[in-house]
Amino acid sequence: MKRKLFVGVMILCLVVFVSAMRSDLAYGSRKFVSIASGWVVGVYFPLAGALSRIAHEKLPDIKITVESSGASVANAKLIASGDADLAILQNDIAFYALQGTKPMFDKAVPNIRGVAALYPEACHIHARKDAKIASVRDLKGKKVAVGPLGSGTEQNAIQILEAYGLKFEDLSKVERLSAAESADYLKDGRIDAAFYTVGVGASAIVDPALMIETLIVPIDGAEADALVKKYPFYAKDRIPAGIYKGIGDVPTVAVLAILVAKAEMEEDMVYRITKAMWENISRIETAHAKGKEVKLEKALIGMPIPLHPGADKFYKEKGLKK
Questions:
Q1: What's the pTM?
Q2: Which of 20, 84, 231, 252 could form a disulfide with 36 if both were Cys (CB 3.0 to 4.6 A apart)?
């Protein structure tokens, strides 16, 4: 009886040991991938989170960790330094990064590679109604948030103001704030308006619109035409009525959000991540309202940089690329 008990205990210990060994080996072979996203209150962060959940469910040997960041320009620099493996950023900023366009980049980011075009990012100028800003030109002499220093939003603000003959120097005060900070400053009256380049429906704009009377300043007419002509990453867009409380349909311009990878990532890993994302697109669609605009047939539209070989392989299999 004692011998049987001893043998049973030994077998149980062996099973536990083997299970632990397998777990350690699995953990040891697990590949950790970081994705730089953006503000928690924006769109990048929840979409990156959805991609992380897809990997957790469908790619057990790959763990994708989501990092909040200063968005586009910061994300390109994280790719350059190798501190991020994947990132979401604006298509115009990705192109500037590859070229090393100053003043955003002191040097080129040669290792940035495309994975997928995601959705349009509308340029919002969200203003307090009591600031009496009906046109971009009315921002002259106003207190305006233009996004964090070096961000894609800041660059868009520079370019949009330029189209209307304005510079930062024409504003009474320039605040370089995150989306959440801009929303708080707008509600408190510490600024008159804020620039955001973000998917329509972002909470940073929804929240102030619920608390105070606001409007979205239109970007249209000859100025929008000139902007699109000079900077071909822009496209004319509209912010639909009813998205933000009390705000009707507003013409604007937009760039594209894209998913990128560093060139050093293994081809097979990027291929599997790309494949898993598109085969489980419902996860992306439910992560945020903008996720419904992410479509496989549009994955290569507006992609201004070379594709990562892993993504290229997937799109060739799908017949989207020769």
A1: 0.75
A2: 84
